[in-house]
Amino acid sequence: MHEIGMCEGLVELLERRAGGRRISGARVRVGVRHAVVGEAFDQAFTLASAGTAAQDAAVDLVVTPVTVTCRACGARCESLDVLAVCPPCGSDDVDVTGGDELVLESITFGEEPADVPGHPR
User: Fold this and answer.
1) What is the pLDDT along the chain (121 residues), one digit of tens a residue?
2) Binding site annotation covers 34?
3) Which CATH class is domain 3-112?
4) Least enclosed by CB within 10 Å: which of 27, 87, 95, 113?
5) Nearest to 25 by CA among 68, 52, 56
């Protein structure tokens, strides 16, 4: 479950940005090539954020597609399938690009300071 490592890094980044403020939400854009499973990501974030400024934060996970360019018919399409084939002709002779990003797009802070050890109120 690689989502745990990903969420541990995300929580570290969120805490650095928070500066002692409580985090109520975040939006993360992740490419389909990372093969993130939404439910596993949610569970991993809950574990990684326990006892931190991000505990109980709502994370909006946005999965971005790959671009598939077919060598057989020339079609260019987007796909959320990691093992993409050309949608129009079904060929597997394709070039796949993109879908490998991992970006923290936004953070929403709560109104009260975080009650986190090591962070003054």
Assistant:
1) 689 999 999 999 999 999 989 999 999 999 999 999 999 999 999 999 999 999 999 999 999 999 999 999 999 999 998 888 998 999 999 999 999 999 999 999 997 655 555 554 4
2) no
3) alpha beta
4) 95
5) 56
